UniProtKB/TrEMBL annotation:
The gene is LOC113066006. Its cofactor is FAD; FMN. The keyword Flavoprotein applies. It holds the Pfam family NAD_binding_1. Signal peptide: none annotated. This is Methionine synthase reductase. Residues 201-223 are annotated as: Disordered. It comes from Carassius auratus.
């Protein structure tokens, strides 16, 4: 009887809480002022600032559509409580690593993955989610998808279709229409919540009909939701969101030759179109330059995990006439011991090019003030919600230091930045063109002439001479200068006190939008070690340049703990780097444990020419000779057929995988081995994945969908691992 009474008491308290919650909701939406009632919450998880920027843009636009919004990073869990949140919630979440949620969202993800939570834990929660990702990588948008999936499993309900934005084709292609459709969805959900005509379980259906059901009323599958985003009306523009711009014929210069679209000019129909441009981003920073000596400046601090190491060796691995120049660097870590494992990477701090910083200072008429101390404060009465001084801009540092080490001046300006630059452009034709580039009608031109061509701020300032932005605009819109990550190409067992990594010097040829230049970090490193750079096999120099580095451990991209498990490695070009570390490690383990059983090892390597860019050739052939490497399978995509007239010589690694399909399938399906892929994400990794699907499909006699499920299972089991980049 006592137990029954307790249960009844619990049920009574639960019902009372529900009644109080309903009463609270009713008073919230009927008795509160309209601007308070129509308040929603924005939560973002951002790795490099893109998700945060989009979340802040949504927050900024909210007032223009009659809403108020609170905004918080997912890491600030003391500022929100989704366990009891009754307002609609908008999540904006990026993806990092091998499909992982960003660091700022990790704690939140662990919380919602807690298996002790009941299935209806979030039954009160109505949310929308915008996931950011890149289709050049595996596990597209998986950070957002992970949160979405677990919220759904715990009873939360969509009030708007989930968006999956692709950085590979341009985030704005999905982000802009998704945000535009968000406002109507919010109006519907607020209307439903205030009327209380439906129970919480029905609320999701009433606000998703336009996105989740087809003409016959049947539920769509998840892939259809992504297609729906393309159907959002791009032509409808809220009159409060932005301006309508028309071309004034009196301001357009008459050209004697036929117009060709370029960064500087458009052609019909865009040049004659009425433009729908985004609202001007709110200013929120005040920047002062003080004529005093700047504080002592350091490139990196210990709290960020960076340490300074000497570069003890720099070797050019390719011939001078190779298409790309590959360089191996050796760091001396003997004084400051650094713990790493093959498969780990290292973040390297690099500066902006000194010539570009000088040109930017000159262009902004700030060259004489480059040594002034910079003070950055929030602008009083700014309309920007949750504005804060960027943490990556240090106070009292010199302007030159900030432009050199803190801001990514090479980044492609976002549309919001282009919109802001237009307001500081004097020439009407130039201003019109900048407005075109940030408009909906000019999206194709923006992608073609800005995003896809890696145009940066300096390129825009060269193209539009009358654009004279204030310094605060750069501080508000330029992202943090990010470190560049490189995989370790060594094992500490074979090279104690040393770390190796290898890179290609990236080259961007001259084009109408920008001059010829090298990659920011790879170009700087090549210049930085030019005094000690030597051809393979020559004596090292005595001087040792220095570099700031921090370890970036991998959670999964390591050799199996059980050495008897067979492994297949696919690494063309510099993608072979981590596998050199794997094989050095395995070689030493075999020497130390001669009685142990070691699984077979396969390496699929490829390059253009056998005699020009076959990286680590001597090491790989030695590994093959001494048994460390069971099978070395190589291909050369640009070499002519041999004298025997061979015609079907494999050109790429995926071709060799197909030729050895039986062994690859055996290792993965029967022997429970592991497949590692490292290198280019845009082409190679996709081609290898497609080949793997065919191999598994043929081996198991299953269709492509089932093969995809099998490959997904390999990923889940951490037996199909990638370290790829675009």
């Amino acid at each position: 009887m006592l137990l029954k009474a307790c249960k009844c008491g619990v049920q009574y308290v639960f019902r009372l809480e529900k009644r109080l919650e309903l009463a609270f909701r009713k008073s919230s939406f009927h008795n509160m002022p309209c601007e308070v009632a129509a308040c929603f919450l924005i939560l973002y998880g951002s790795q490099r600032g893109q998700a945060q920027s989009i979340a802040e843009e949504i927050c900024q636009q909210a007032a223009e559509h009659g809403f108020t919004a609170d905004i918080s990073c997912l890491s600030n869990q003391h500022k929100y409580n989704v366990d009891r949140e009754i307002r609609p919630v908008v999540f904006v979440v990026s993806t990092t690593g091998d499909g992982d949620p960003p660091d700022t969202a990790q704690k939140f993800v662990r919380k919602i993955k807690n298996k002790s939570l009941v299935h209806d834990h979030f039954s009160h929660l109505h949310y929308a989610l915008l996931a950011l990702g890149d289709t050049n990588y595996a596990n597209f948008c998986n950070g957002g998808k992970t949160i979405d999936r677990h919220l759904q499993q715990l009873g939360a309900k969509h009030f708007y279709a989930t968006g999956h934005a692709d950085d590979g084709t341009g985030l704005e292609v999905v982000v802009d229409p998704w945000i535009e459709g968000l406002w109507d969805a919010l109006k519907k959900v607020f209307s439903s919540m205030s009327s209380l005509t439906q129970q919480d379980a029905d609320l999701s259906d009433s606000t998703q009909d336009n996105y989740h059901k087809n003409a016959s009323g049947q539920e769509k599958n998840k892939s259809d939701l992504e297609v729906d985003l393309q159907l959002l009306k791009l032509s409808e523009v809220d009159s409060q969101k932005g301006k309508t711009i028309t071309s004034d014929s009196s301001d357009v210069e008459t050209l004697s030759t036929a117009l060709v679209a370029s960064l500087k000019q458009s052609v019909p129909p865009l040049s004659e179109s009425v433009l729908n441009v985004p609202a001007l981003p709110a200013s929120y920073l005040e920047v002062r330059l003080e004529q005093v000596s700047a504080e002592w400046e350091t490139v990196a601090s210990d709290k960020d995990g960076y340490r300074e190491f000497s570069i003890s060796k720099a070797v050019q691995l390719t011939q001078d006439d190779a298409v790309k120049t590959a360089i191996l660097l050796e760091l001396d870590t003997s004084v400051q011991n650094i713990v790493y494992h093959p498969g780990d990477a290292f973040d390297i701090l690099c500066p902006n090019r000194a010539t570009e910083v000088e040109e930017l200072l000159l262009r902004l008429d700030l060259q004489t003030q480059k040594n002034c101390a910079v003070q950055v404060n929030l602008l009083k009465n700014s309309s920007k919600k949750a504005a804060k001084v960027p943490l990556h801009i240090p106070q009292n540092s010199s302007l030159q230091f900030i432009l050199t080490w803190c801001l990514e001046i090479r980044s492609a300006p976002k549309k919001a930045f282009v919109r802001a630059l237009a307001d500081f452009t004097q020439n009407s034709s130039e201003k019109r063109r900048l407005l075109e580039l940030c408009s909906k009608e000019g999206s194709a031109d923006y992608n073609t002439f800005v995003r896809d061509t890696n145009v940066c701020l300096l390129d825009l300032l060269r193209a539009f001479p009358s654009c004279l932005p204030p310094l605060r605009l750069l501080f508000e819109h330029l992202p943090k200068l990010q470190p560049r990550a490189y995989s370790a190409a060594s094992s500490s067992l074979q090279h104690p006190g040393k770390v190796h990594f290898v890179f290609n010097v990236v080259e961007f040829p001259a084009r109408p939008e920008h001059p010829a230049r090298t990659g920011l970090c790879t170009g700087w490193l090549a210049d930085h070690v030019s005094s000690i750079l030597r051809p393979l096999g020559t004596v090292p120099a005595s001087s040792q340049p220095k570099v700031h580095v921090r370890p970036r451990p991998s959670s999964t991209f390591h050799l199996p703990a059980d050495p008897s498990i067979p492994v297949v490695m696919v690494g063309p070009g510099t993608g072979v780097a981590p596998f050199i570390g794997f094989l050095q490690q395995r070689e030493k383990e075999r020497e130390a444990n001669q009685e142990a059983t070691f699984g077979e090892t396969w390496l699929f390597f490829g390059c253009r020419h056998k005699d020009k860019d076959f990286l680590f050739r001597e090491q790989l052939e030695r590994f093959a000779c001494n048994g460390t490497l069971s099978h070395l399978i190589v291909c050369f995509s640009r070499d002519e057929p041999d004298a025997a007239g061979t015609v079907n010589t494999p050109a790429y690694v995926q071709h060799n995988l197909s030729l050895h399909a039986k062994n690859v399938a055996r290792i993965l399906l029967k022997d429970k081995g592991c497949l590692y892929v490292c290198g280019d994400a845009k082409n190679m990794a996709k081609d290898v994945n497609d080949t793997l699907l065919k191999i598994i499909g043929n081996e198991l006699q299953i269709d492509k969908l089932d093969a995809m499920k099998k490959v997904a299972g390999l990923r889940e089991e951490k037996r199909y691992l990638q370290d790829i980049w675009s």
